[in-house]
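Researcher: Next sequence.
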Amino acid sequence: MSISVKVGHNQDPIKAIQKLKNKLIDEGLFQELKKRKHYVKPSMQKRLKREEAERQRVKDFRKAIRQAEQSDDFF
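Model: Next structure:
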């Protein structure tokens, strides 16, 4: 995997660095580094995954309710 940003002759290098940072964030590199910073036991990984799934279900449920209320199909 190779992530690169081309910098033109008259382009600002600060903007290029920001583009690179955005690409790294999109690829999930920073989250992966954060996860690997400390060892997490397999049982703890399962627990964290379950908790994240529950949070995502709650978010999806709330989003579905908001969409239903906005589309006037709500009761």
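Model: The chain has three helices and no strands. The radius of gyration is 20 Å.
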